[in-house]
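Why do we care about 3D structure at all? Because function follows from shape, and shape follows, mostly, from sequence. That is the central idea of this module. The next example makes it concrete: a single protein chain, its amino acid sequence, and then its structure expressed as tokens.
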Amino acid sequence: MSKFKEELRQVAQTCFNHEWLVERTDIVPAPEDLTLNGTHAKDLQFATVLYADLDGSTDMVDTYYWWFSAGVYKAYLACAADIIRGEGGVITSYDGDRVMAVFTGANQCVDAVRAAMKITYVVGAVIQPVINTKYPDSGFVLRQTVGVDASSLHAARIGVRGDNDIVWVGRAANWAAKLTALPGRPVRITKAVFDLLAPEFIIHEGAYVWHVREEAALGGGAHVFDTDYIYTME
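And the structure:
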């Protein structure tokens, strides 16, 4: 066995050490809050994950000039990030055309859903008009989805020194991302989130604003609630 192969085998062995040092926390950890070597994790007993994701970005980059697509990416992610932070969320990663954030605190589900609705509003009321004015003949329509789920989460630091990040282990991290890939209206949440919403986010002007369905992609009996209701920022 080569020296490098042996070194990698030892790295892999350490990753499967079951003697984890797990620290409970109520705040979203940064990478420097966790050790890179060994098995150190932070335990968020309940947290809400939001994924905001552009829809149709592959077609966009195949059809439009690169600088047009870059402008769309930057505008969408910058506006989404400002809204998320304004609602108390902590941005944990950018991945191409999407952003992930974690919310904690007593009103975390309300905060995350309000952020999702505001992102949807800004896409139609702010970013799309700017695109239409700047490129009136483009025919481009910006579409996006936001997925929100809540569950227990564990955070661990991954990578190597000088190039590392946090991996989030828990249902919400997976389901929030998966919600953005499912069919439906632009804001999609799970029952865990819906059950903790304030009344004003469920009924608007006497009308129930959510549509509910069972979704096999999330496991047997899991329900998805989606809406095109938006939280305006006038």
